[in-house]
TrEMBL record:
<feature type="domain" description="KANL3/Tex30 alpha/beta hydrolase-like">
    <location>
        <begin position="30"/>
        <end position="115"/>
    </location>
</feature>
<dbReference type="Pfam" id="PF20408">
    <property type="entry name" value="Abhydrolase_11"/>
</dbReference>
<dbReference type="InterPro" id="IPR026555">
    <property type="entry name" value="NSL3/Tex30"/>
</dbReference>
<dbReference type="InterPro" id="IPR046879">
    <property type="entry name" value="KANL3/Tex30_Abhydrolase"/>
</dbReference>
<feature type="region of interest" description="Disordered">
    <location>
        <begin position="1"/>
        <end position="28"/>
    </location>
</feature>
<protein>
    <recommendedName>
        <fullName>KANL3/Tex30 alpha/beta hydrolase-like domain-containing protein</fullName>
    </recommendedName>
</protein>
<dbReference type="InterPro" id="IPR029058">
    <property type="entry name" value="AB_hydrolase_fold"/>
</dbReference>
Length: 115
């Protein structure tokens, strides 16, 4: 009679992380601007985890996160219309590009922050 395998032995190993998305060592590391969603700030656990994963996966020189102005003050309220968010987002992008001239730019966002 064959022995039953333990659950731990039946589990498949965790997949290896994906290869870096940059394929040539001569390519410059990207700078990533990562915008949060409507409900949680850039300091949330979810954003922090994804910031680190993006940095590793893209071999980014920096992943810039920020909070839209409506998130300040600690009072939860709905976001304003997109045109007000775009101006702030654009200023963050311009600052990131100015800090890392010549590096590719990657825009990334969660939910509302990706629109």
């Amino acid at each position: 009679m064959a022995r039953k395998r333990r659950r731990a032995e039946q589990r498949t190993p965790a997949p290896s992380p994906p290869p870096l998305l940059r394929t040539k060592s001569s390519q410059r590391q990207p700078v990533v601007v990562f915008a949060h969603g409507a409900g949680a700030p850039s300091s949330s656990d979810w954003m922090t985890r994804w910031k680190e994963m993006a940095k590793d996966a893209l071999d980014a020189i920096e992943v810039v996160t920020f909070d839209y102005p409506y998130m300040s003050g600690g009072k939860r309220r709905p976001p304003p219309k997109a045109d007000k968010l775009v101006d702030h987002h654009l200023s963050v992008v311009k600052n990131a590009v100015a800090e890392h001239p010549g590096h590719p730019l990657v825009l990334m966002g969660k939910s509302m922050g990706s629109r």
